Amino acid sequence: MKNKEYMQQSKLDMDDKQFHWSQWQLLDSILPTGGFAHSFGLEAAIQARIVSQPEDLKTFVIHLLDNTGSLLLPFVHSTTLSPDLETWEKNDRFLNAILTNEVSRKASVTQGSALMRVAAIVFSEISSLKAMRETSTGTGAVSFHHAPIFGLICGLLGWDSTMSQRAYLFITLRDVISAATRLNLVGPLGAAVLQHQLALVAEDTLKKWMNRPVEEACQTVPLLETVQGCHTYLFSRLFCS
């Protein structure tokens, strides 16, 4: 009896350890999801002279976090709570309808498709993830937007909604500051300092917008939407969006 209890406890311990490793891997920048190919409109904002110095960059990132929280966190929240095919497809179609900016829509689909493909291979123990991808690929039922897929994966990995929403803001903050580094707005050390400084801003943004239904998703900084939409008109560009 004691041996059986020991085996059960050992399995629980292993599951807990696997949970943490999966959590860190999903947030690791080495995961090939294509996030670093996008600047969230920062490149267009630089060429439009909206962002030209570090202080402008800080303001841009703060507004981006707020926009992400108001528009995308509801979709992360919903699919984390109900990580099933029906909820995912419904949220994906809804998000596709409200994303009026063609640049951000394509960026969302590109990153979401890559994330779904990578996650289905990496987290092979989650058979339902691979099944949902195979069921939806090529059918036109979903566009594979990034935010609902991120929430779906988090839910299937056993994350709670608060953790998944905080993680989504984290990768947004990480990726836009990485883009700023490659656009020579800030150096690597300055980027690390800026990310640390904005961590509390991101946390406040989380508290402001977390746990909202998808029906309340909205844009809070329309200027960012307009600027990002101009990305395709840039004569020369480093990023896809």
Describe the oligomeric state of these chains in a short phrase.
Answer: single chain
Mean pLDDT, to the nearest integer, reads 87
Low-confidence stretches: 1-14
Number of strands: 0
Number of helices: 12
Biggest sheet statistics: none
Taken as a percent bin, the fraction of beta residues is: under 5%
Approximate shape: globular
N-to-C span: 59 Å
Order of helices and strands: HHHHHHHHHHHH
Rg, nearest Å: 19 Å
**What level of helicity do the residues show?**
55-70%
Commentary on this structure:
It is a single chain. The model is unreliable at 1-14 (pLDDT under 50). The chain contains 12 helices and no strands. The protein is globular, with a radius of gyration of 19 Å. The N and C termini lie far apart (59 Å). It has helices spanning 2-27, 42-47, 54-71, 73-81, 85-98, 102-122, 127-136, 146-156, 161-182, 188-197, 199-209, 222-229. It is mainly α.
Furnish the topology, listing elements before pairings:
Elements: H1 2-27, H2 42-47, H3 54-71, H4 73-81, H5 85-98, H6 102-122, H7 127-136, H8 146-156, H9 161-182, H10 188-197, H11 199-209, H12 222-229
Features:
mainly alpha, 241 residues, globular, disordered N terminus
